[in-house]
Amino acid sequence: MHELGIVFYIIRDVKKVAEENHVDKVSAVVMDIGEVSTVVPDYLQDCWKWATDKEPVMKGCALRCNIIPAVTVCNSCGCEYPTVEHGRTCPRCGSPETVLLRGNEVEIKEIEVKDQL
Length: 117
Known about the structure:
Elements: H1 3-20, E1 26-34, H2 41-52, E2 62-68, E3 71-74, E4 80-82, H3 83-86, E5 98-102, E6 106-113
Parallel strand pairs: 1-2
Antiparallel strand pairs: 1-6, 3-4, 3-5
């Protein structure tokens, strides 16, 4: 399960941003997770709850995941198509000369904080 390692990297980065911005409490983190990134969002959530409870600035912090659909483009005919449905072979022309455009992301999209008075 590599999701725990990913969670540790996310926490490291979020804590750094929180410190740089003098934030005492992070309320939520929004991630973009690609459909073919090999990250399992449910596993990420389980690891998240365990790991963030050990960090005062992130204790109780929510994790929200946006799933980014995988899209591939064919270099031969220019067709863009859903990767999971058709794989690496272009459904229009049958060419194997294709490239993944998106769907492999694992990125922090947003860090949310509560108003600090």
